[in-house]
Amino acid sequence: MTEDAPELRASDADRERVAEILRDALAEGRLDMGEFEERLEATYKARTYGELTPITRDLPAAGAPPAVSFSKAPAESGSWGSRIVGGEGSSTWAMAVMSGFQRKGRWTVPKRFTGFTFMGGGEIDLREANFADGEVELNCIAIMGGISVVVPPGVEVVMRGIAVMGGFDHYEEETPPDPAAPRVIVTGLAFWGGVEVEHKVTKAERRRLKEERRQERLDRGSARHQLHEARHEWREARREERREERERRRRGDR
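Below the sequence we write its predicted C-alpha cells.
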C-alpha cells in the first residue's frame, strides 16, 4: 500500500495484508478483541488505500521487528553478575588416562583450569557453572583423546590452542557475545586428538523454549480462528444487509 495515492482502489490482497497485521496484533496483545473486530470490519469495508492506511497506522508492519522484545535471555537460570562469584574454583584440574572425566552442573570454574586426557575423554560443561572471575582460562591437553567444552549462549570464547595431527575447533554461535558474560580463553594442545568448543543451552532451557514456541503456535491458532469467525460473521451480516436491501427494493417496486 502507499500513502502517495490514497484515492487508488484497494485490492482483496491489500485488505488481506491489513487483516494479517491485525491478526498478529491481536495475538501479541496490541489489540483487544473489540478493537480487533472493529478494525477488521473497517478493513473489509475499505475501498481505497486512503481508507486502509489509518487502520494499522499505530501497529508495526507484518514482519517488522518489534520495538521492544519480551523474549527471555538464554541464561535465565541467573544473571551473569550473580554467576561471577570470585574466590577459588571447585577444582583446578582433571585428568583421564584411558578413561574419562566430567565437570558439569553447579560448579565454580577457577581462573585457570587444566584438563588432560590420554587415550580418554573429558567433558567441561559451563552452562550451569559459576565463575571465579570475569575471564577464565581452560588449558586443554588431549593426546590421542578428546576434550569437549560446552558453554552457554552469550559467552565469548577465544581459542589459543595448537593442534598436531588433530583438531582445535570452536563452533561459533551466530549471536554476538553478551557484554556482561564471562570470557573463556581455551588454550592447550591436541596431539592425535581433539578439543572442541560449542555453544548450547541446557535441557531445561530447551524445554522452556520449546514450550514457548508451542504456546505461541496455540495463541496464533486461536487468533487465526477468531479472525476466521469474525470474517465469517461480517460476511453473513453483509449478506443479510443485501437481502434486506433487495426486499426493500421489491416492496418499493410494487
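The CA atoms of residues 149 and 197 lie 5 Å apart.
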